[in-house]
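Thread: Newbie trying to understand structure tokens

Hi all, I'm a second-year student working on a class project, and my supervisor (Dr. K.) asked me to get a predicted structure for one chain before our next meeting. I've only ever worked with sequences, so writing a 3D structure as a token string is new to me. If someone could post the tokens and maybe explain what I'm looking at, I'd be very grateful. Here's the chain:
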Amino acid sequence: MKQNLHTARGQATLFMIVGLLIVFLIGLYFFYDEVEALLIEITLTETEAHEQRERTDTAYECLEYYTEQALELLRKQGGYIELPEKNLHVERHKLAYFPQNRSSKDMEREVARYIEGKLLENCFEEEEEYSLSTTGDLEISVELSENEISIIGDWPLYFTKEDTGDLFWLEPIVYSSQSSVKILFETAQELSKEENTIDYTKAYYGLEGMEISIIPFENSSIYTLAQEEEYFVFAVER
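---
Reply by user tm_fold:
Sure, no problem. This is what the structure looks like when written as tokens:
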């Protein structure tokens, strides 16, 4: 009886050890990428660190360029990068109609999608010295405030060179610039809700430091808001 009890206890202990070992191996598997990245960071050579800074600078310049490009599209298309089906054609330009079921958060999401697509397509297309690989998706987060746009890019992109064994990856990229596109957009929404009784070609008046022009066009009115060096154009159907 005692022998059977000792045997059972021994088996239970063995099962516990095996179970703990399995849990440890599973945890090691899931955290392998993070541990590997940490070890790589600690052991970067001087050459790798230099190349890492250069590639991160390149990614920053791409982020800056496409952020400003996205802002320009928002300004001249009535707060849209991807125009809705219903819009106003003015010569070669298209404008979104107001009012609309839309917020600055929608603009942030469109800017993020636009930048992600452009970076993936164009940023390192001419890279020849290193092979590229990734451990995840490029993620762009965008925040529009009253006077600024802020962008954070997390791009798990790795650069490797087989003949030398060099290996490094992009650091997080952060960009911000002054922009009042959010407040221009919100002002446009408020103006578009008002009844327009203006019956002359142009009207200029001030609103919170803005200059506003209204031009009749067919069955619509084209608004242009200007504040300092920025502008915002949209259409209202009458």
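A couple of things are worth pointing out once you decode it. Residues 45-237 form one domain. DSSP finds five helices and twelve strands in the chain. Feel free to ask follow-ups in this thread.
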